[in-house]
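LOG
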Amino acid sequence: MPTPTIYVDADACPVKEEVYKVARRTGCPVFVVANGAMRVPPDVTFVSVADGADVADDWIAERVKPGDIVVTNDIPLADRALKAGGA
């Protein structure tokens, strides 16, 4: 089974540090997606998307595959991730 990718909807995500710890322990790649600048550790990929409603959500939803993990407080994004086979 391939290693899952972790996607973090970074807007107001209170558990980023915990995600980074788990990802390091398991070897999962992490993408932190936001509309503005944000500092992330060197082993994490930061993706800056254009301003606008749901732009970060769309970026994540277009990439999530079965087995991937999406960390979000956004119910519509969570629904899209689950429908794509993510967790």
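LOG (cont.) second protein
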Amino acid sequence: MDLAQPLPHPLRSPFAHVRARFHHWFASRLPLRDVTLLTQRNVYILPTRPGFMLAATLLVLLVGSINYQLNLGYLLTFLLAGSALVGMHLCHGTLRGLTLQLQPVDPGFMGSNTTISIDLVSTRKRVRHGIGLSVLGSGHWIWTDVPGQGRATVHVAFKPSRRGLQPIPTLTAETRFPLGTFRVWTIWRPASRVLVYPAPETWPPPLPEGEPRSGGAAASRMPRASGEFDGVRSYQRGDPLKLVVWKKLAKADELVSRDTHQAQRHALWLDLAHTGVAASPAAAGAPLEHAISRLCAWVLAADKQDLEYGLRLGAREITPASGEAHKRRCLEALAVHGTADAGAPHNDQGR
């Protein structure tokens, strides 16, 4: 046994399991909405540990004052109790009346952090202090102050574990301002979903060979000296500047130009059947995910080299092109391939 690891507490695991199940049950009963107004109906308050300690202290002070007939003891006891009640009212008012607005969420890659941007809008004149937001159950809080009649933006990150259109996790907001004796919180379930791209393979094989275009002069696949499709050649004096691959020059300090004749004869197709992974397009599981991950890495590599490339996913075919819009279209197709959202429109991310 590793002595550096803490020993499991016999009561901690069952309690954590019950609490997680309660949070899941409670969150499942909440409505889905991207904009929510916090009112007394969805804001909750309970004493914190310091709050319970303060209550016990007040009880001891009250008993002692009664026993010894201490007028100053009564004064101190009721002064502290009144301060606690005022703090409870201020703490609850810090969240009450606040509006939470979800901003459009950009797509991310599976296994990487995806950032959620939330606007906190206040209509009252006083500043709201010490408001924290977090993914429910994560324990990672982002704290901010909301100015009077203004707004503040908070960025919360989560790590999606599956590709495709995934729901945004349940969020929670809380405050303990001003005394820390009460905890006021709310739970919020956004309605939007985020598109999660597959995780690219870490060390993918070289890009596949270019296929002869239909009607072209070449009848076989293009021979390659470098072992992968690149679509470029050494720079020759007189080449137009628009043919120079500036990305390759910035990365490898190598001046090359696009081979327009080669691009006219051959097309780079990224085919699910050519990934070398035994995966059926209609089946799910590790082989299909491995093949999708390899195709994702190829799409990123081809875009980085500024190549024209197409994508084949079974019966679906995306014609060769280049640019940011084409890359995003290919990544979207890879993200939903083989999932229940394969035929759904991808406009509910707010992009």
